[in-house]
Specification:
The chain has about 425 residues and is an alpha/beta fold. Helix content is about 40%, strand content about 15%. The protein has helices spanning about 20-30, 40-45, 60-65, 100-110, 130-140, 180-190, 205-235, 240-245, 265-275, 285-295, 295-310, 340-345, 360-370, 390-400; strands spanning about 10-15, 35, 65-70, 80-85, 115-120, 150-155, 170-175, 195-200, 320, 350-355, 380-385, 405-415, 425. The longest helix has about 30 residues, at about 205-235. The mean pLDDT is about 95.
Length: about 425
């Protein structure tokens, strides 16, 4: 069965979130794109010209003249290449949750035609595309893989909030279910990726490459977090150590902190799940995950000890947590580990006020049951935790941050927002 040539591609992007929308917008500068999402409110906002994730500006949306945002399945019927950009989270037991991916595959299967190509961008374990997604496409469509339709995999490399490294300026890994389809997938992405692509030899190689990108970062951050715990016990400033070590040309510039977000804190579990399924129990990867997942509890234990040393009453204390998003200067709340700190404070019967100017209050309430405050009041808090390095917090300066505390209070700066001597505690 013949698949479409590059000039015959009628493109659809399935899922218009942090990954899918920037991709669809970039393609829509050059060709017509059907942008599909099941969230009708999201579609309405995009049609009105605004992206609540702030990954795409209003101006960029206006310039993407080829993009048609829709929640109607019928609008996909004319498309012959589908790019799937739905999330792949983990469940409460840290197991991969392929539900969004399976549902997207089912949706595509209802409109799949002979010759069509389905490309997945969602982060998965090696083998998931061909072992989990393709059978759904076959069952729903009644077509046969690599005979009637084809698949590709090109993992997303979106960095939320990063206005320098965008879709078009990050090198893209591509792959296809046959050599010919791999070339089509690669050529399609070369239309928009100005820094080039890397064509992997198979879909499984491309899947594995993606899942280890963030696993490597997770393990490295876990090492630095463990070093921070050791140095704190020794009374040594971790940042000073890292700056000194960083004077060597090949020292990797990782920093301690909470590890959340849609990738780094999630992707390793996809790899370890597959490893365990084939009879291997990962040690280093899971050890790094356990250490990083425990950093919220560690932060609060250090804070409570510092409060006790100052003779500040812990039970009933009021603590300001500055920042809720998983990283600085973006509204992304996915898998934020700030919630670990809030929960741990609650276990000590401490009242936590969360302040984050980037956050949509309704989303915070829906996702975590938290209601961020509008603005903190000076002289109110027994302790302050600077959890996210938003530009607004940096602009406040140390004096303004400390002014939010009572005459006797503790400031814990997790992100080096304040000068070294201005904070009582640092990671």
């Amino acid at each position: 069965m013949k698949f479409p040539s590059l000039d015959q591609v009628r493109l659809a992007v399935i899922g218009l979130g942090y990954v899918g929308l920037p991709l669809a917008v970039e393609f829509a500068k050059r060709r017509k794109v059907a942008g599909f999402d099941i969230n009708v409110d999201r579609i309405g906002a995009l049609r009105a010209g605004h992206d609540a994730t702030l990954e795409v500006s209003d101006e960029e949306l206006r310039e993407a003249t080829g993009l048609r945002c829709t929640a109607a399945l019928s609008d996909l019927a004319a498309c012959n290449v589908f790019i799937v950009t739905v999330p792949t989270p983990i469940d409460e037991h840290k197991r991969p949750d392929l539900t969004p991916l399976i549902k997207a595959s089912t949706t595509i299967g209802t409109v799949l035609k002979p010759g069509d190509v389905v490309i997945y961008e969602s982060t998965v374990y090696p083998g998931a595309t061909e072992e989990d997604c393709v059978p759904v496409l076959e069952k729903t469509s009644g077509l046969k893989f690599n005979v009637d339709f084809y698949a590709g995999y090109s993992p997303e490399r979106i960095n939320p909030g990063d206005k320098e490294h965008r879709v078009s300026t990050i090198k893209k890994v591509t792959s296809g279910s046959t050599p010919e389809v791999a070339e089509l997938v690669d050529a399609l992405y070369r239309e928009i990726i100005v820094v080039g692509t890397h064509k992997a030899e198979s879909i499984r190689v491309a899947e594995a490459a993606k899942v280890i990108e963030n696993t490597q970062r997770d393990v490295n951050i876990a090492l630095i977090n463990e070093l921070a715990i050791i140095f704190n016990r020794m009374g040594i400033d971790t940042e000073a150590v890292l700056q000194a070590a960083g004077s060597k040309w090949n020292f990797l510039p990782f920093r301690p902190g909470l590890v959340g977000g849609h990738c780094i804190g999630v992707d390793p579990y996809y790899l370890t799940h597959k490893a365990q399924a084939i009879g291997y129990h990962p040690e280093i990867i899971l050890a790094g995950r356990r250490l990083n997942d425990g950093m919220g509890a560690y932060v609060v234990s250090q804070l409570v000890k510092a409060m006790l040393k100052r003779r500040i009453q812990v039970e009933g204390a009021r603590v300001l947590v500055m920042g809720l998003t998983f990283k600085e200067n973006c509204p992304d709340l996915r898998n934020t580990r700030i919630v670990d700190i809030v929960k741990e404070l609650g276990d000590y019967n401490i009242q936590a006020d969360v302040y984050d100017p980037w956050v949509d209050v309704a989303e915070a309430q829906h996702e975590y049951g938290l209601t961020p405050i509008d603005a903190p009041q000076p002289g109110t808090y027994d302790a302050i935790i600077v959890g996210v390095a938003h530009e607004q917090f940096k602009a406040m300066g140390a004096d303004a941050i400390r002014a939010l505390g009572k005459p006797e209070h503790v400031v814990y700066d997790l992100k080096y927002v304040m000068p070294r001597n201005a904070a009582d505690l640092r990671l």
